[in-house]
Specification:
- By secondary structure, the protein is an alpha+beta fold.
- The protein has one domain.
- The protein is 64% helix and 12% strand.
- The chain contains two helices and two strands, in the order αββα.
- Strand 1 and strand 2 form a beta hairpin.
- The relative contact order is 0.09.
Length: 64
């Protein structure tokens, strides 16, 4: 968990106070910062769901 929190802080520092409509560039692509952050949230949620399924298969406890 410590590594995740540290990575979140690095991300906050990287975007600073840039507006969400500012353009980011990576690997020859251009996209809005808003798109990148939304994608990051979606991917984090997806992976948490995968982890929850694995946990359920191990301990048999299911959520609501």
């Amino acid at each position: 968990m410590t590594e995740y929190v540290a990575e979140c802080e690095r991300s906050r520092l990287a975007i600073g106070y840039d507006p969400l409509d500012s353009v980011a560039r990576s690997d020859g692509m251009e996209f809005a910062l808003r798109y990148a952050l939304t994608h990051l949230i979606e991917e984090t949620a997806r992976h948490c769901g995968h982890l929850d399924l694995l946990r359920e298969s191990l301990d048999g406890t299911v959520g609501e």
